[in-house]
């Protein structure tokens, strides 16, 4: 509780500083919903597709260990509930941890470690797709971007660095079994947590050993991230004073999205505003925090609809518990 209060306080202080310094202004948000309502509906439509694809990607990972098939709707509802908690708890990945509470709705016989491994790998694959996009666009447009300013050149070099890191992580996920065994033996020598860590990575490597499944999930991730970055550009570009081409969004947006995943505030509140304010200024785009705020509000409004399956699930669980109590024989009987 204390940690959550500190994180919320940090976010609110960031927002206060942005407002006080004039970097954040809600005028653009009102303008967007007044004059560009058609883009808001486009966001709702495409973001729904993106969320559905994300749930399907997770379904593929859950089914990767065996031949058992899982119905899509419980997975989709759990994914949707996760999005809801991403918007009310610190960090854009906190909702992933909430999914563990709904494991029994998908399959009560699933190993908790394997289930957690799929949640972790699903987020990691999404991150790899995001980094792949920014690395590719940075490489294609390197000379044009580097000629704008030294800061942008440094930004592109940083993109290359994290792209190489993503390639390294992908390589580790696809290690041959002989190399995996060496790592597992090393994990076994670590006291207390060694065996659990070894089992956790063993589950991830089991998924990674199915190359077609893994590469298919990477492709889905790239498609999902393309939709997200396109929507960010579609929302922001009509509100900017300077021309903001799409390829520039593919260079700055991924870095901003990654920063939002830090467990500091719900949906990256405050942190995302500050980061995007800096990133967009590299392209001489003013009011970056205010522009991001429009996108931020659209995302939060969509994620809050996850309260619907959460409330329904809570009501259903309470109903089941009440039924069990009524069926349970009393001591007197």
Q: How many strand elements?
A: 0
Q: Spans with pLDDT under 50 lasting ≥5 residues?
A: none
Distance between the termini: 44 Å
DSSP helix fraction: over 70%
Shape label:
globular
Q: How many structural domains can be distinguished in the coordinates?
A: 1
Q: What report would you give on this structure?
A:
With 333 residues, this protein is mainly alpha-helical. The chain has one domain (26-312). 76% of the residues lie in helices and 0% in strands. It is built from 16 helices and no strands. It is globular. The two termini are 44 Å apart.
Descriptive labels:
333 residues, single chain, mainly alpha
Nutshell version of this structure?
By secondary structure, this protein is an all-alpha fold. The protein has helices at 2-20, 27-35, 37-62, 72-86, 94-98, 103-106, 112-140, 142-146, 150-173, 177-188, 194-208, 211-236, 246-260, 271-281, 288-303, 307-327.
